[in-house]
Amino acid sequence: MGGELGSTHHILSVLVENRFGVLSRVAGLFSRRGYNIYSLAVSPTEDERFSRMTIVVDTESAPIEQITKQLNKLVPVVKILELAEADAVEREMLLATVKASAELRSHVTELVSIFEAKILDVGHEAMTIMASGTPGKLDAFSELLAPFGIVELQRTGRIALPKLARRPKARRLRAVSGGS
Predict the structure, then answer these.
(1) Is residue 47 within 8 Å of 24, Cβ to Cβ?
(2) 58 and 99 assigned to the same domain
């Protein structure tokens, strides 16, 4: 799973009702229409009635307008946002088991420190590591771990939210009448 999105990928943040079968309906829609999902992450939101799906879509299979139009036809879909990379905060998580003999363990530990990752498990000849960050950061981390020997690797796929406004909204001033 490559980190940097090309112009043919779009990030959709889809708010859906938290009901049984919603994920299969969305996946079925993509399957029936021949749309390619690059990555998909689903989780509950702060409101237990809703879940958020972050779907990274390959738009070579269909234009983004067509994909959002089809998603909007599904009853459980509440809201769809297309998030431009420049306007989104996105993260991904990686778990990797890496060969790490006693002689090489300090080198792997140094990489873990540099990438602000975490060692989750240590065996005689391997370590399991967790890292989170931008997809590009995880691509770089994976590349640097590869020479040690990656035994297993799993990535979550992207999650994303819109960036927050940088300027505070102007406050309205109330007119105060002076007493005289």
Answers:
(1) no
(2) no
CB–CB of 56/159 below 8 Å? no
By C-alpha distance, which of 126, 119, 131 is closest to 149?
126
Q: What is the C-alpha to C-alpha distance for residues 163 and 132, in angstroms, rounded to an integer?
A: 18
Give residue 156's domain range: 89-162
Instruction: Tell whether 175 is covered by a domain.
Output: no
User: How far is it, in rounded angstroms, from Cα 151 to Cα 171?
Assistant: 56
In the chain, the number of structural domains is 2
pLDDT in tens, 97-149: 999 999 999 999 999 999 999 999 999 999 999 999 999 999 999 999 999 99
Q: How many CA atoms lie within 13 A of 35 on its CB side?
A: 28
Determine the Cα–Cα distance for residues 97 and 99; give it in Å rounded to an integer.
7
The tokens describing 7, both together, are: 């112009």
* N- to C-terminal Cα separation, the chain: 72
Instruction: Locate 109 and state its tokens.
Output: 């530990």
Token pair belonging to 19: 């009901």
| Residue 100 sits in the same domain as residue 132 | yes
Q: Running DSSP on this structure, what letter comes out for residue 124? A: S
Judging by beta carbons within 10 Å of its beta carbon (0-12, 13-18, 19+), is residue 127 exposed, middle or buried? buried
